[in-house]
Structure formats: C-alpha cells, structure tokens
Design a protein that fits this description.
Radius of gyration of chain B: 36 Å
Order of helices and strands of chain B: HEEEEEEHHHHEEEEEEEHHHHHHHHHHHH
Mean pLDDT of chain B: 83
Oligomer: heterodimer
Shape of chain B: elongated
Structural class of chain A: alpha+beta
CATH class of the largest domain in chain A: Alpha Beta
Distance between the termini of chain B: 39 Å
Largest sheet of chain B: 5 strands, antiparallel
Distance between the termini of chain A: 45 Å
Low-confidence stretches of chain B: 511-515
Structural class of chain B: alpha+beta
Strand order of the largest sheet of chain B: 3-6-1-13-8
Number of helices of chain A: 11
Mean pLDDT of chain A: 84
Low-confidence stretches of chain A: 317-332
Largest interface: A-B, 41 and 31 residues
Largest sheet of chain A: 7 strands, antiparallel
Chain lengths: 332, 515
C-alpha cells in the first residue's frame, strides 16, 4: 500500500496542501501582514518590542559593497549564523561554529574560507534565496547554544520546535532534530527527524524521518520515549503571543531552547508546512475545528495556552479533541 | 455561502457562454467539430458553342439561383474579347456576353464552384404561382387528356398523389392509347415536361419547369435534366418527371426555374451547351470560414480569422497556452507534482511542439546538463548573481549554437530546431537547478526536473494533438470553458495524489491503533 485512501485521511482530519492554502492561509492570513514574518528583521524587531527573546543580531548587510565589510563584521565572533532576511524554508542559512584564522568551520566540520562566505552573502543580497528573486538583505545572528537536554538528540545542529498557532491557540507542535542526512538543517524533507510533541505535556509522542517511523535518533541511536521538552509552558506562551504580535491567524512559530537564554523565537512562518501531521500521527482539521467554533478569542496568551493544553493533550485524555470540545462548550 | 453561490453562478455563466458559442458556431454557422471534416466541392463548367454569323452577337445564359442550401465559392466567365455583364431578371440571374462583329465558331465558358450545406431550404419567399393557363389542345388531344385526367383523378386523394399518378401514368411501360396519343412520337424531355404542366393546368394546378444538373464526379458533356415543380399547399414541390418521385434528389443542382430559355444566342446559330463536372474535397472549416467572412457574420468578422495569416499563426500557438495552463493546474493541484518554475513546463512544451518529442527531450537534457556543468564552474568564480545568470544565458546560447553547428555537420536536421527553446527560460532553469543541487542535493533536482519534464511532455501531448489544436484555434470560446474548469480547480480543497503517498504511513498507524 503506497497510497492512503482519501476517505480515511479525511476521517483522521489530515489537511492537504490545497485545503491549507484555501481554508487556512488565504482565510486567516491577510496578505498585508506577510511582510511582518517574511522579513526576519521586522519579525525580530516586533518580537523585541513584545518582550520576546530572540537570538542576538550581530550585524546586517544591505548592499553588495557591504560585502567588503564582512571580514570586519565577523572578526569579533567565533560563532555566528548568516541568514537571508527574506529567505524561506531554511534556504540560504549558513552556520559557522568555529573560526580559525582564515578558515570557518561548518557544523559538519567542513572548512570554508572567507571568500566562500562572501560569495554566499553576495548571493543572498542578489536575491537568490528570497521569494521571487527580489534583492535581499543579510543578517548575522549569534549562534544558539545547544541545550544539554537535547544532547544526544541532535547531530551537527540545533533542534528547533515548530508550534502551529491557530488564532492564537497553539494546536500542534513538533521537535525537529538535525541529522547527518539533513546536513545539520532542521528541515524534514531534507532528512531531519520530526518528533510530534504533546501539547499538554511537552513529551515526545512519535518520531518520523522521511515519512517513516523511527524509534531512536538515526545518528546517535538515542530513543525518543523519555524525551520531554523543558520550559514547555514558556514555549507555548511565546508561540501564542505571536498571534498578537503579527495578527496572523495561522502561523508556524519556530522556537529554540538556548542553553544560556532559554526559550527564544527564531522565525515565524505564514505558510507552515503539513509534515507536522505526520510527526504527530494526527490531523490538524479537528483541532482547527475546535478553535473555529470558539465564540471569542481569549486576549490573554496564558489563558489560551491553558485552554490548548487541556484540549489538545493526547497523553492524558483518551478522548478525541472533537468530543471533548462539545462537552466543554455546551454549558456556556 | 452567499459568496460560494455567486462563484458557482459565475462559473456556470462562463461555462455556458463558452459552450453556447461553440454550439452556435457548430450548428448555425456549420463549423465542424473535427479537423478532418471534408465537404465535397463541385466544380462545374458550362461550355457554350455557337457559330457567329458575322454581325453583332449577344449571348444570354441563365445562371443558377443563389439559394440558402448551396454556397457558391467562385464564379468565372471566360470568353475571348467579349463584353460581359451579369444581369438580374425577374426569373433569375443571367450572364450576357456581347460583341460587335464576329464570325465563325465561338466558345464561351462559365465556371462555378459550389458546395451544399445542411441547411434545410426553408421555403422563404415561396414565390406565388401565376394562374395556370389552360392549354389549347386540338380536339383529339383534348379528349385524350380529359380521359387520362379522369382516370388519374379517380386514383388519387390529393394534389400530391394526383401529380405523382399522372407522371407514373405518362411513363408507364405499357402505354394506353390516350398516353401514346398525348406523348406522340416527338417525346423529347421538354415536350414531356410541358405536357405534364399543361395537363396539370387543365386540373387548375400551377406547375412550372425546373432545369437542373445531376452532380457526378468526372462527368463531361452533360446536359440539364427537366423536373416539374408543382405548387401544392403553399409551397413548391419538385417532381421527377420520369418516376413521379417528389423531392430534390441528392447532388442535384437546380439551375433554372420557369420557362425562360436557358440559352439565347442572337446573331449566331447551332448554339450548343454542355456541362462538365469535377468534384474535389475541401476542408469544411475553410469553406465555412470563407462563407462566414463573406456574409459578415459578426462572431466571425470580429474574430481571429479577420487577422492577417501571420498573426493567425501566432494565435494558433497562443491559443494552445490555456491548454498547457490547465495541464499545469491539474498536475500541481490534483497530482501534486513539483515543477521547477510554475509555467516553465508550458514553455518547454511549446518548444517540443516545434522540435518533436524525442529530439526536443534530448536537446533539452543536453542543454540543461551541459549548462549545469558549466554553471558549477561559474559558481566557483564568485560572481554577482545578475552577472552570473547573464553568463549562463550566454553559455546557453553557445551550447545551442554548438548543437546546431555540430548536428548540421553530422547531417542531423532535427537538432537544428534547438533554436525553438526559450533561452532565458533555459538559463533560469539551469540556475535554479544548480542552486537546488547545492542546497537540497541531487535528489530534489531529479524530482523537480523530472516533474517539470513530465508535465511538459503531458502538456505537449495534449497541445500537439491535432484535434485539440484544431478546436482551440477554431473555437477560441473553449478558453471560457477552460477558464471555468480552472476556476473550479482553484476551489478544490481535497487531497493531492502525492499527499495520499505522503500521508500513507498515517493511515497504517491509525488502522493499527484502532484494531
């Protein structure tokens, strides 16, 4: 069996690309708000204004002639991340973990030279990675330090936590673990492991790589069963707060746990992908339906997190969220 | 819900408009739905021979009437050094050749090309008959006629049957005395026709003579055949004067109605007329377009057909694009195939149309493959982006020129068509693929490249289909139907085929957890 029956998928509440584009993105994400998340500098600024922790900005480059300044900008830092401001899907992100004279080392251990970085920056500025090939800017951020809780769960990279926030309510989450196959990137289609995370507890539910179930990390062989994400409440609250910050009804918040600074937001996405359903072995549709039937959106992110934790916890509650919702909603 | 209703109304409106226009063109204007639809076109030549006496000569010749069931494509009048004019007389069109002084054998030609349409000859302007003139027979003939008419009248119930019975009686193999008397020994066709008309007149029935030509391919030295047209119940019915059958036979061209002479030659003698007929098949579509243009049917007059041929050819291509767009929409929204660049496959498909499939794919793979190799070197040169893509364009042109030159030297003509590939698009494809290779690895390049090529090939197969090409050009209204489909697909929120695979592990898990 290589193909699932559409009927069954629908009964599990799996949302497809067409439905996502039509029923979620175009309905809940007003076009004019896109720049807030497509432009990572704007997102960063917004987040800082909202008091949300973000990775430290080390520098920005806007024009091709700025490339000459690159060496100066980079000199004081041993570790850094270079990102296109308007990149999408993790494209064009260059991570340098060590700097030794002329050589810069990638997480994989490959060494590159300053000219390579300069070319990369120049490509970004020319718009190679931006949507529609428009000229772009480059931002240089501090490198996130791996939280020891993830040691053994990540290979050559920093795992990030993707939380889908629908109208301010976190409805689904997954942990994306870098692998050797994904070249240190946390992109599922490149071979990163997606671990579905229980909204109620922050515990791992189930993990997939390339769409197939895995029980332990393919490189470190560590099993996922005892994985629990610390600061889970804080992470959920940060994600929930992004709704007020951006106004986007359907967004994917990418968060990380920094060893020193704790939970922080690295990126927001107005068109979050659907692989999260595979990692969670659950469909988004029932959870979206729960939120859609709410009469009013609670203005307090903390209250929304509490609601979500109660609604969407799969570990504590044997009931499906749908049934639970009707009972919860009726007396009001 | 309200917006939804409006949307579907719009779709139905667009679809209805498109389908309606197509049906109108097919049924009213006669556009065939298939490209191979052929119509027989009859080329008739009437040759008029006479010898002139030496004085002024006027030749007057009846021309076939223009009726709705035939379309005259072309008429020619040829005769050396004659003055010519076409006259309209109450009994029909006539051609007139004239010359001041001429002597000896003379020939005039009238050539005509026409085809028959399916249109029923609605009896428009059924010209009213004149009061039948009672014939003046001598005593004997009169008695014979009255007897015959009595017999026939007894056997018939109405005018139609009466006419048929009368004709059968006159043509019977064992003629009675009356019949032989009436027909006498001078039973030429014309005589018989007039006899029938006279006998009908004695009954008070109006009738007239009709001369026509049986259209048969490759016939020469034909002459016109006489029919009798009888006015019954407010319309004229055609009767075969030898069989009594009524109705116009197939492939029969009515040349002249009424008793006026077919040919008058003043100042000549021994005039003779003979017809020859040749049939050839022509594309129905061409005939219909020509006819509609000449009739100035609005929908045709303000259409692509009114453009110069060169622009028409351009539109032939352009009108295929919506078909390609529909394929891309289907491939992406229903199948979920990933392509590099949304509409790149259509442009590749357009190029494939020019190059043919296999040659095109080989050329495409060669150019993109070589381009990727050179591009990988360019990426080491540390160039600015715009400069690099421009360099790639030049590389692509060099590759295309090399392919052309080398294949020309090798005598491979097909490869010369390489120039039909859009250079800019190829360059962008190479650039994108190369970046994709660096970032996501060769697997993604294969997926997207394969997806693009597959979409292009499918689009090509549709766009190069003769019937589809014919329909899209001759029924541009199809675009509306296409648009309606694309609008509908734009509302499709179900799963893509690829997602059934993507999520197939979910199904297994959910099944096992339930059991």
């Amino acid at each position: 069996m290589f193909l699932a029956s559409p009927k069954k998928l629908r009964s599990f509440g799996i949302i497809g690309m067409n439905q996502r584009n039509f029923g979620l993105i175009s309905r809940y994400n007003p076009r004019h708000l896109y720049p807030l998340v497509d432009d990572k500098l704007k997102t960063k600024l917004l987040a800082q204004q909202a008091g949300i922790t973000v990775p430290k900005l080390l520098g920005t480059l806007h024009y091709q002639h700025d490339v000459k300044l690159l060496q100066e900008v980079l000199r004081p830092y041993n570790q850094f991340v270079i990102k296109p401001v308007k990149g999408s899907g993790g494209k064009g992100i260059l991570v340098i973990v060590e700097h030794d004279h002329n050589l810069y080392f990638k997480p994989s251990g490959d060494a590159i030279q300053l000219v390579d970085i300069e070319r990369h920056v120049s490509n970004i500025l020319s718009g190679l990675h931006s949507l529609g090939g428009k000229p772009d800017s480059v931002m240089i951020e501090s490198l996130i330090q791996l939280d020891p809780v993830f040691s053994g769960y990540s290979y050559e990279g920093i795992p990030d936590i993707r939380i889908i926030v629908f109208r301010g309510y976190p409805i689904m989450a997954m942990l994306r673990l870098t692998t050797h196959a994904s070249d240190g990137k946390a992109n599922l289609h490149q071979g990163a492991v997606g671990v579905g995370i229980d909204i109620g507890t922050g515990g791992a539910l189930h993990a997939v790589q390339f769409g197939e179930t895995v029980l332990h990390h393919p490189d470190t062989r560590k099993t996922f069963s005892e994985l629990f994400i610390p600061h889970w409440d804080k992470l959920l609250q940060l994600a929930a707060a992004c709704y007020e910050m951006t106004g986007l009804g359907y967004l994917g918040a990418d968060l990380v746990l920094d060893r020193d600074q704790g939970p922080m937001i690295i990126e927001l996405n107005a068109r979050p992908g659907l692989s999260i359903q595979v990692a969670n072995y659950a469909g988004l549709a029932p959870r979206v339906a729960v939120i859609e039937t709410l009469k009013a959106i609670d203005p307090d992110p903390q209250a929304r997190v509490i609601f979500s934790k109660k609604q969407f916890s799969t570990v504590l509650n044997p009931h499906t969220p749908r049934l639970q919702h009707t009972r919860y909603d009726d007396p009001r | 819900m309200h917006a939804n209703l409006r949307f579907y109304l719009l779709v139905i409106l667009i679809m209805g408009l498109g389908v309606g226009l197509i049906l109108y063109k097919h049924f009213i204007l006669g556009f065939p739905l298939l490209p191979d639809d052929k119509t027989p076109v009859w080329n008739i030549e009437a040759k008029i021979d006479f010898s002139a006496r030496g004085g002024p000569v006027v030749v007057s010749f009846a021309l076939p009437p223009e009726t709705p069931d035939i379309v005259i494509i072309k008429e020619d009048f040829a005769s050396p050094d004659y003055g010519f004019s076409e006259l309209a007389s109450p009994s029909g069109r006539r051609a007139q050749w004239s010359k001041r002084a001429v002597k000896g054998a003379q020939t005039a030609y009238y050539r005509l090309s026409l085809y028959e349409t399916d249109q029923i000859t609605s009896s428009i302007a059924a010209d009213l008959p004149s009061e039948p003139e009672k014939p003046e027979f001598d005593e004997v003939l009169n008695t014979a006629a009255i007897t015959l008419l009595d017999q026939v009248r007894n056997r018939s119930a109405n005018t139609k049957i009466f006419t048929r019975e009368l004709i059968t009686a006159l043509n019977s193999k064992v003629p009675s005395q009356n019949q032989s008397l009436l027909l006498s020994e001078r039973s030429s066709d014309d005589y018989k026709t007039h006899l029938i008309i006279n006998l009908l007149a004695m009954e008070g029935i109006s009738a007239r003579i009709v001369r026509g030509l049986y259209l048969e391919d490759g016939r020469r030295r034909q002459s016109l055949t006489n029919f009798v047209e009888v006015y019954i119940g407010g319309q004229w019915l055609l009767f075969n004067q030898n069989t009594g059958l009524h109705g116009k036979p197939e492939n029969f061209l009515i040349w002249q109605r009424g008793d006026e002479s077919l040919l008058d030659v003043v100042g000549g003698k021994n005039s003779q007329i003979s017809f020859s007929i040749i049939k050839n098949l022509q594309s129905t579509r061409n005939l219909v377009v020509r006819d509609s243009m000449s009739k100035q049917a609005g929908i045709i007059d303000f259409s692509i057909y009114s453009l110069p041929i060169e622009q028409q050819n351009a539109f032939k291509m352009i009108l295929l694009l919506p078909i390609g767009a529909l394929i891309v929409v289907i491939m992406r929204l229903l199948i979920g195939l990933r392509t590099s660049g949304t509409f790149m496959p259509i442009l590749i498909a357009l190029a494939l149309i020019q190059t043919t499939l296999l040659t095109g794919i080989i050329i495409f793979l060669t150019v993109v493959g070589t381009g990727l190799l050179i591009r990988s070197y360019l990426s080491r040169l540390n160039l600015l982006f715009v400069a690099r893509i421009s360099a790639v364009i030049i590389v692509v042109i060099v590759i295309m020129a090399s392919i052309s030159i080398i294949s020309n030297k090798l005598g491979l003509d097909q490869a010369l068509t390489v120039t039909f590939f859009p250079m800019i698009i190829l360059s962008w494809t190479i650039e994108r693929m190369s970046v994709l290779w660096e970032e996501d690895g060769p697997r993604e390049v294969l997926i997207q490249g394969g997806g693009s090529l597959l979409t292009a090939v499918i689009a090509y197969l549709f766009m190069s289909n003769r019937t589809i090409e014919y329909l899209s050009f001759n029924f541009p209204e199809l675009m509306l139907v296409n648009l309606a489909f694309i609008l509908l697909l734009g509302q499709y929120t179900g799963y893509r085929l690829s997602e059934l695979y993507r999520f197939h592990s979910l199904e297994r898990r959910n099944v096992s957890s339930k059991s």
